[in-house]
Amino acid sequence: MEWLRGLPKAELHLHLEGTIKPETLVELSKRHDQEPLTLEGAERLYQYENFLGFLMSFKAVTERLKGPDDYELITYNMIRELARQGVVHAEVYVSFGIIFFWKKTEVEPYVDAIERGRERGEKDFGTSVLWIVDAVRHFGVEEGARVFRKAAELKKKYPSIIGIGIGGDEARGPADQFRDLYKEAKDAGLRLTAHAGESVGPESVWSAINIGAERIGHALAAQHDAELIEVLARKQIPLEINITSNIRTGCCKGFDEHPVKEYFESGLMITLNSDDPPMFGSNLLGEYVLAQERYGFTLDQMRELAANAVEASFLDPARKLALLQRVERYG
């Protein structure tokens, strides 16, 4: 485990709002709730039985995020936790959709806050962070347009805003609906990701590819389509794999059924990620340990997975090359 902790790792699929630990939730509750949560009460909010239950848990936790200062707190805490695991770089989803749709307010004060947290965290712990602005797909195309256009506007002021993506319920927000918005975002200089094939079939992954997604989050359902596997392998489209997340949400029946090793052996460009760590009882280091111990990845293969994540990142070429050299020299 210590070898894996020291391996320079990049995290490409991590939701800021999903990094809140129960202890931090208690702190947020003390700030905002008339009757603050106990630690036991907070921990109960992280319990659920299926994917929709997970979405409800996620909502219950994020409802405690009231003001910009809360976002600064969770950003700083996230970077501290990543550094403890040997994560040198992270590309983190932040949901403008939640701020717009649930909070009914503008995002600028919140972006200022996560930037303060990022700058302090990078200075104190050395882990770099880029932001991927996430639209909640089942809020609709109009809300998605608002989110992506705001991301393009703010990118001019904050170079750390690197890309966009769509999360949420795939069944109620097919990727095809966002085709024109993805072209618009690309023209604005934003990089493109999409959650796909997590809770619905391989057609969702095809749709994400067809609208121009450069990286695919989850792609769990790709295993059921041999032609899709062939395309993913040939094009080397990076996949943001989240093993424990897929099990805990019920999207995959069990660890033995997860296709992570099959994907690797089929030549797919996979990366390991943690998604919403406290909600799944894991973190990126835990995912690396799981891959080695349960799926039999060798240490050389673990180094390859770490290199994949750096290569698939949206970092500038110089920083990417420097991190790849660190990975190659490690061990």
End-to-end distance, in Å? Answer: 13 Å
Task: Specify the biggest β-sheet.
Answer: 8 strands, parallel
Unreliable sequence segments: none
CATH topology (fold) name: TIM Barrel
Mean pLDDT: 95
Helical residue percent?
40-55%
Structural class: alpha/beta
Q: CATH H level: which superfamily? A: Metal-dependent hydrolases
* Count of helical stretches: 17
* Order of helix and strand elements from N to C terminus: HEHHHHEHHEHEHEHEHEHHEHHHH
Please tell me how large the radius of gyration is.
18 Å
Shape, principal axes of CA atoms: globular
Would you count the extended β strands for me? 8
- How many distinct folded domains? 1
Give the DSSP E fraction (strand runs of 2 or more residues). Answer: 5-15%
Briefly, what CATH class? Answer: Alpha Beta
Question: Order of strands across the biggest sheet?
Answer: 1-2-3-4-5-6-7-8
**CATH architecture name:** Alpha-Beta Barrel
GO molecular function, one term: hydrolase activity, acting on carbon-nitrogen (but not peptide) bonds, in cyclic amidines
Protein name: Adenosine deaminase
Domain Adenosine deaminase: 8-329
Pfam family, one: A_deaminase
